[in-house]
Amino acid sequence: MSYLDLPRLCFTGSFQVDVSTINNTVAYYDNAAFQPSYQEPGSNGGGWNPDGTGFFRFVDCKITAAALADRWITDAAADPVIGMALENADSHVFGKLADLDPQQQMCSEIWGMKVRLTDGGTAAAFAGDYTPGPFFNLWQRQQSGLPSDQTLAAAFRSTVARLRWGELPHSEVLHRLRDVCEDDSLSITFSAFGYGRDPTIPRYTYGKLVGCIGPYRRGEPRRFARGRQLAPSIPAPNNPPPNYVDWSVCKVDRDRRVVTADFSNCFQIVNAGGHIANFGPVYLAVLRDDTPSLLTQVTQSQVVVLGAVRYQEPAWFNTMGGIQDFSYAANPDAAVLIGERPLLLLQPAGSDLYTVLAQETLAGLFLRADNFVYRLEPGETQAIDLYATRYGEPYAGAVINCAPTQGLLGATGGGGPPSVPTPDVMVPPNGVGFRPNLETDRDGRAELAITAARLDPPVPRGYIDGQLYGVGYALADEPANAVQDPFNFTSVLVFSPVDVPEHPTWFGDVQPIMQQYANLYPIMSKRLFRIDDYDTVVHNLKILEFAFRLPAEDPNHMPVTRDLSAGRREIILRWMTQKGPDGLPLKGAPAPRARSIAPLSTMAPVKLDLHPIQQQGKTAVLMELKVRGIIRRMS
């Protein structure tokens, strides 16, 4: 991904996401214990938006700036791309936002989203398909606001693939962008924040975003920028001090002698409007020595300052999207050091001192999987691309160690009946197999093959299909005290093995599956039709069969959550297409209502001091993981 390359487009606007909140609580997946009251809004029911559809869309997003090699453009008189609209589909439904699992909500993905650039005419300048990809670096960014405000923020990075170009306006930026993009793809990033969850306010289900679009280069990862990664110098507390900054990324252009930094998800905001908290001057600098240690303060003589970060300028964030270029063409010291010394974010702390707010990963080392969210069938093998860098350049011959990790897995999601235990994750421990050691090629790339086992017992979590596993990876020569990004691991949902009956029946095989979705997504029954009722499903058989056959990348794919295994899908489709003597799918006889039994969890309950509307959702999950010590600075 190369959105930090040239030319690039910056955009600002809003997003709307109609999330479903019932499925945030793992205990609600137990059909036998589910109560109709759980579908009602409120902290003791289905959360603040139980009728959510899951759709995700851009709203009023405009191109606000563009960068060429010799200049930034912010005026439509200089290039007509300024002011053009970044939109989604014009002929079908919007994309969908889906969690991997109720016990892994820290990697929500956007599926089936179209991205179009238009001037309001009938044809788009370009249009393509957003490559499904998860958010990362979720953190408490907003300092104040309504009690119901979602104070968390996160970043999405992916590509716009299968690109189709239309008639371009007389735009130098767009013509150059079309000429340099490869594999019919563009790279895209956006930071989402300021989400409204109170139905009494106008911005209910709306939030703000800033983003950037650039060329995609063949061979690059599609879901992150292979650059210089700056880590926070202090752990992320629940209530961060004003000068806490989160992760950011820079890329060095040696030919132009420019460092391009992406601070879009880095600085705290005062409120949901996206106004950045002003805590004084901040500078990007390069360290003169190569000591691989964590720094809290440095003197002026230890660093070469590249320039001041423009975050204090009111229009910078909402125009440039948090992107800034730092030229070192007139700085010979920086030119010598930039390729082998760490970058720092600094704040003045006296006449000769700086406080280190963020520091490049130790020894300049960084490793990440291109994609880090997978759903695997029993016996399926998924090849995962890992990219290693040292000071932003491919790290050839690097040894990678891989091992199981719980990562961010295992949260309860808040609430739920106390009689339903929370299942443990990663049980049985041999649910996935992989090589423990890898080595990168000359491009700094290695392939990690993860194979899903046939789970035994087949449903280890009792009332929810499949099991979650985490696969961690690290460079063997990474310093022991290196700061770890808690989001940087691979999450795998291994589906339960299923024996598909030759002649499935409604009550014996299909209804239990449909019942769970009817419980967790009541919008279907309220707005369309009951999917847990035989007669209603049979009446709407054709449209349901069509939806269940759509690929996961299609926005109309059913279910929205993309958590239905191939075996269970085959049961449903076989039942739909087989007819009994009456010409209808086999009904069978109702089975006695059985109480599901999940394995007892080893996790003790966690009490969180949250506003009632925050009890179910990402805020509760993030705080629970912090209390359990899963999110922490590794040292």
Describe the protein's architecture and organization.
With 635 residues, the chain is α+β, with helices and mostly antiparallel strands. It folds into 3 domains: 8-363, no CATH class; 365-498 and 604-627, Sandwich (Immunoglobulin-like), CATH 2.60.40.10; 506-577, no CATH class. It contains 9 helices and 31 strands. Strands 1, 2, 3, 4, 5, 6, 7, 8, 9, 10, 11 and 12 form a 12-stranded antiparallel β-sheet that branches. Strands 13, 14, 15, 16, 17, 18, 19, 20 and 21 form a 9-stranded antiparallel β-sheet that branches. Helix 7 (541-549) runs antiparallel to helix 8. The model has no long low-confidence stretch (mean pLDDT 92).
Per DSSP E runs of 2 or more residues, the count of β-strands stands at 31
Q: So how many helices?
A: 9
Shape: globular
Q: What is the alpha-carbon Rg in Å?
A: 25 Å
Question: Gist?
Answer:
The chain has helices at residues 172-180, 316-320, 332-337, 506-520, 523-528, 534-539, 541-549, 566-577, 618-627; strands spanning 8-17, 55-68, 71-73, 85-87, 95-98, 109-111, 114-118, 126-130, 133-140, 152-165, 186-193, 206-215, 228-232, 248-253, 258-262, 283-287, 297-299, 303-308, 323-327, 343-348, 353-360, 365-369, 373-376, 381-390, 393-394, 399-404, 432-433, 437-439, 445-452, 467-475, 490-494.
